[in-house]
Amino acid sequence: MSKKFVRKVFFVTYIIIVIGMVTAGICFSQEREITATYMASGTYDVAAKELVPEFERLTGIKVKIAAFPWAILREKNMTDLITGTGKYDVMSGSYYLAKVYEFFYPMDKYITKDNYGISMISGLMKKCQRYEGYQIGVPYGPDAYSLLYRTDLFKKAGIGIPQTWDAIIQAAKKLDTLYEGEGIDGYVFSCGAIEQLPIFLFTKYNGTFITADNKYHLEPREAIQAIKKSKKLLEYAPPGVLGLSIDEANAVFLQGKAAMVECWPSFIRAAANDPARSNIVGKWAVLPYPKVGFPWLSMWEMFISRYSKDKDAAWEWIKFYTREKNAKYFFTKYGIGSAYTSTYQDPELLEKYGHDFPGILANLKRAKNPPLTGEAQDFLASTISQVLVGEITPEKAVENINTKWASLEVPKPLIEMAENSGLKAK
Amino acid sequence: MKLSKFKQSENILFILFLLPAFFFIVIAQFYPLLYSFYISFTKWSLIKWKPIALVGLSNYQRVLQDSLFKHAFKISLIFACITTPVELVIGFLLAYMITGERKIYKITRTILVIPMTIAPVAVGTIWRMLLNTRAGLINYLLQKIGINGPNWLATPSTAFFSILIVDIWEWTPFAMIIFVAALSSIPVDLFSAAQIDGASRWQILRYITLPLIAPITVLIVLFRFIDSILVIDIIYTTTYGGPGFSTNVITFHIYKQALKYFNITYAAAASWILQIFCLLVAIVLLMCSGKLQEKI
Amino acid sequence: MKKIYPKQKEFIFLLIKGAIIILGTLAVLVPFIYLFLNSIKPEFEFLSVPPKLFPSRIMTKYYSSLLASGSETLKFLFNSLLVTGATTILAVFGGALAAYSLSHLRVSPKTISIIIFSILLVRFYPKITTVIPYFILMKKFHLLDTLISIIIAHVSITVPFVVLLMMSFFREIPPSIEESAKLDGCNVWQVFCKIVLPLSSPGLATSAVLTAIISWNEFLIASSLASVNAKTLPIAVSSFITDKGILWGPMSAMTTLIVIPIVLFTLLLQKYLVRGLTLGAVK
Q1: Mean of the per-residue pLDDT values for chain A?
Q2: pTM of the predicted model, to two decimals?
Q3: Contact flag B242-A382 (C-beta cutoff 8 Å)
Q4: B35 inside domain
Q5: Segments in chain C forming alpha helices (H)
Q6: Of A88, A365, B15, B92, which alpha carbon lies 20 to 30 A from A70's?
Q7: Domain total for chain B?
Q8: Where does the sequence pass through the membrane (chain B) (predicted)?
Q9: Residues of chain C whose pLDDT is less than 50?
Q10: How many angstroms away from the CA of B177 is the closest CA of chain C?
Q11: Which of B68, B133, B262 is opposite residue A99, by nearest beta carbon?
Q12: How far is B227 from chain A, CA to nearest CA, in Å?
């Protein structure tokens, strides 16, 4: 037996031992331990990690936080469920997970037992995801797309609060010409973040998304005018607007170079109130959306996987993370939107944020989740992008969208959600 | 007789030698490949996580009728057909210039090799920064000479152009380094003989060098063409398929179908269509190269 | 060779050569310098219009936060090192064994061609095809999110290349050496270990270099298998592309960290790299 042969035997044995240990480790872990997924954002995931030690102290349950960027988070959650892996007990997600709702564990009995969500903003729990009548998710970090505007610039130009989209476009035009010398544009948006583009439809489109026979479909006339108006509004945006990421578009507004911005408030409000990070402190407010369509609701929800080996522990963590006690702290430290009315009525916070709380709250109340699957929404976004860069006309775009959408399957939970939110044709 | 017995037992040992490598290849490549082939003929239930019916070629029909698939395939073909010749030509040019044992040549070769050794993900992020419209280096330099740089990654035409540039930057070194080896392996006497006969540099290039490296060139075409069709890492980090669908290459399209929308049967059928295409190309090019080799 | 050509033409040619060398070198080096500068710049200086190329002050906070003791980056680095190391060892030895076998197996050339062809198959198809079935397989063996599943996948991708490479090296060993060893009483295994391997050590080194690079840089398979424990460095880079936009500072720092080992590796071992690539293609 040569030395080399012996070495090889050792090596193979080593590999076998390692495999054995790994399998053993998985089988024999005795402690209560759960894993929860969050979006890697520097906010939700960091907040979660901060809570882990205290939670373990109080309940003895260990929590592992798995954080991923948005696109990968969705992938990981779905793969885990579809393959029955059961690695994640708690999952963060939203309506785009509709394809896998049947894998989520009903929460109704937990909710009733613990009187959960009573003091949340009215209607929020109702907007949570349901499957066959059961509630499967509870909310955190709600955010509604909002239009922010420069109160000082509007005042100086003598413009009142515009009530319709045409009026908003006119205001943008006036401001753009008036302040051209100072390098200020009328409007800015992160057109480079293509997945954001559907908002152009949602807030200007008064129609339905699903037909009476359960197919995805946009009403052509309404949809075309929505896209046309969005394109018009962009004429008063900075020249590079088509390539701006969310951070960059927000930076334009924060540096005072735009009179209006349409954005997720949670990304911008902290900086907008901080003199060290922006030039517009005290000079902005939330512009109420015209009463057309709906503002896009981004409401994270936590779900419990059917494959979780310790669903009670999973619920305990969910309760802990979404405690009303945390709401104000998470908001101040991380800018995470609160689901509780009390946060918006807190005197200390009102003093600092009074100028945007009412507007934000109003948008939250009107906001809806679009009843679209990931594929439908992605196609919508990419097609709108084609219109903005001038590749196709709004008419052709709506035609393409309807053609593609007709070939897609609509999951039942989304049909129900559309019925409940008035987005399905009768 | 003794010899053949020895050879037989040797054979068995040799087969044993093959096992470790085959173990890995079978587990991680063959089995998944065959399984995905099987999937492409079924209707798949996400809930039960297994096929519930055999549907013949309907998945393949669905894929071939999908305009997005055709568009993605077209984009990939155009992409590969542009990058491959460009990388060939520039690679050859560079190789021609810096073949040799001089120190400066060696150093230059070493530096020029670097782009292809870095993670494609890293290449993508580097170029994403370079091409950023407002803050990127490229537009900054263009502005210095008075040109207003375009929205590189946000306009369809320039976005496609950008990914071409990224791929060319990353993989021209590959062509170059192989050409260098090929050029260095041409016997020097051939050159000396031609020079004595009074041939110009151009003539030597045309009648001696190029024909001799033809088989290798075909191989480079093979590697680069197929790898260009299969490109995904840089798309993922630079444009994510956008704007619109202008950089939605075929592998990226399949990736989205498989891991984003979980249209598993679609993805399986689509990837097998792509695979058969690549295999055909590979076979044709390999035969070409073989024939050219024989001529020499 | 060049001395015979007319002096003027030569000079112009030399100039062109010099220009191309300089341009090429710049084209390669400038992006990296830019990357590095971005990683030590305060973030708003990157986004500011017009951008400030050179940082007004040097910030090491991106690096320090990445390399801090509690950071995940060290875990990624460790994972990458482990995966690449194990892959290299397994692929090189497994591949060498297989190559030796293929070059000595007494079967028809056609069978050998078929085996080689099926090995080559692995090189030329979209890896996405195998991701989900492989995922299911790993799940059956409870190997999801472990480094082992990634290692197995990486070895399967790199072994074919090693086999091809080593076969061309083994072909250059004169059969007489092996014959005389056998006559001296060595069995096949001893011939392999004591004679063939040492003689082809440049080939082994080359295979190792190529395998290491491919494994270190691999993204698709690693990202689909890893979730919490088994993340490798390339996954880390893509995680900075968030929905808000890109965290330029940390991403530049992370990308620099990924790039530096490979660059050093290449500079030191370029001889093997070059040889490997050329032989792999030249056959």
Answers
A1: 87
A2: 0.83
A3: yes
A4: no
A5: 7-39, 43-47, 61-67, 72-104, 109-121, 128-140, 147-171, 175-183, 188-190, 197-199, 201-217, 220-225, 233-238, 248-282
A6: A365
A7: 1
A8: 12-34, 75-98, 110-130, 171-192, 204-226, 264-288
A9: 1-2, 282-283
A10: 7
A11: B262
A12: 24
